[in-house]
Amino acid sequence: LALPSGIAPGAAARLRRCASSSVSIPPPRCLLGPLEAPLRYMFGPGPSNVPPRILAAGGRPIIGHMHEEMFEIMDDIKQGIQYAFQTQNNMTIAASGSGHTAMECALFNCVEPGEPVLVAINGIWGERVAEIARRIGADVKTLVKTPGGYFTNEEIEQALAKHKPVLFFLTHGESSAGLVHPMDGIGDLCRKHNCLFLVDSVASLGGASLFMDKQNIDILYTGSQKALNGPPGTAPVSFNDRACKKMFSRKTKPVSYLLDMTHLSNYWGCDGKPERIYHHTGPVSGFFALRESLAILAEMGLENSWKLHKEVAEYLHEGLEGLGLKLFVQDKNLRLPCVTTIAIPVGYNWREITQYVMKHHRMEITGGLGPSVGMVLRVGLMGYNCSKTNADKVLVALGDALKHCHKSKV
Ligand code: PMP
């Protein structure tokens, strides 16, 4: 038997023994070698590099998902999310899964089949939400702009008046377009038109100012892996009293058992009941890591974090323009500090650029996503990665790519 190099001691013998054993499927050879996960600069739209402190927290010994200490950790996480979201909402949890899980948790619980939902689409995330809402039988109406566009409060109000939705969705940090959407006044419009305001802050939380309570956001969610620098796999989400009223007076049960907030609210100790009952096994290590991410944000302070992201983004933007590159979002105030979009330089193939920086600089930057594919390159410097030193690394890598990647193959 020819064995791959680096095979674990004893594995060769095990592989050979298999010929005479009762199992007909042998252990996969790939698993008999060591895990390979290279060190990379994760300077795309996420996930970001995870600092050693958070990695160490995630590597602590496992405890039970129903142990007293775990409930205390979950309570700490809840308070950390309340701080990061700037909310006093009791119904604040972290869903077990990626940002999409929180997105589905919000929609599955707050929308019933046949109900009208209004979705603002100015990149991939509105498209995704519209798709999920259609799958649960909602009557989906859309407000659409090309990537980089934003919606005025007048446009939003007209659409609310026309469609009378039960819920309006907007992305705060549109990571596919690099746009941070203005938030003021929209929550008030939703209240006026008796609809819930659902906001996606996966790519903006911690990097751009957002005030759930003050801005009258009814449901807000994010992910662990961007400015929070956690490993992917946990997703904070919070519901205010208006949202709770709607989701706990449903006529139909939510389509997902896993994401049913009647159960999750108990698991997270938000339902006022003295006892928490088993619902699912939460990602214990992921919760350890998330607690550490939120602790780092609490130590740094939200305002300092917003300021740092703005300063580093502006520094990066100047440097990119210095290389002769054009930023995709023209209006400086609408540029998302966490994820910068660069118009693909004329005559270059974007894939060649991203492949070049990966190969020669061990750096992830990406192309567009969904409707922005072929329009932009995306650079994300979030949380732990957000520094001028890292911005310099990006500028060196991109400058190098511009010199070496062939022009004219578009
Ligand atoms: N919303 C936004 C704005 C995002 O940037 C992302 C992740 N790129 C998501 C939602 C989905 O998150 P996840 O990939 O963790 O499911």
Automatic annotation (TrEMBL):
Cofactor(s) it depends on: pyridoxal 5'-phosphate
Positions where N6-(pyridoxal phosphate)lysine occurs in the chain: 226
Enzyme class of the recorded protein, top EC level: transferase
Binding residue positions for substrate: 378
Keyword Transferase: yes
Keywords: Aminotransferase, Pyridoxal phosphate, Transferase
One GO term (biological process): glycine biosynthetic process, by transamination of glyoxylate
EC number: 2.6.1.44, 2.6.1.51
Domain Aminotransferase class V positions: 62-386
PROSITE patterns cross-referenced by the UniProt entry: AA_TRANSFER_CLASS_5
GO cellular component terms, semicolon-separated: peroxisome
Gene Ontology molecular functions: alanine-glyoxylate transaminase activity; L-serine-pyruvate transaminase activity
Stored InterPro entries: Aminotrans_V_dom, Aminotrans_V_PyrdxlP_BS, PyrdxlP-dep_Trfase, PyrdxlP-dep_Trfase_major, PyrdxlP-dep_Trfase_small, SP_NH2Trfase/AEP_transaminase
Catalytic activity: L-serine + pyruvate = 3-hydroxypyruvate + L-alanine; glyoxylate + L-alanine = glycine + pyruvate
Subunit note: Homodimer.
Family, per entry: Belongs to the class-V pyridoxal-phosphate-dependent aminotransferase family.
PANTHER family linked to this entry: ALANINE--GLYOXYLATE AMINOTRANSFERASE, AMINOTRANSFERASE CLASS V
Annotated protein name in UniProt: Alanine--glyoxylate aminotransferase
The species this protein was found in: Scleropages formosus
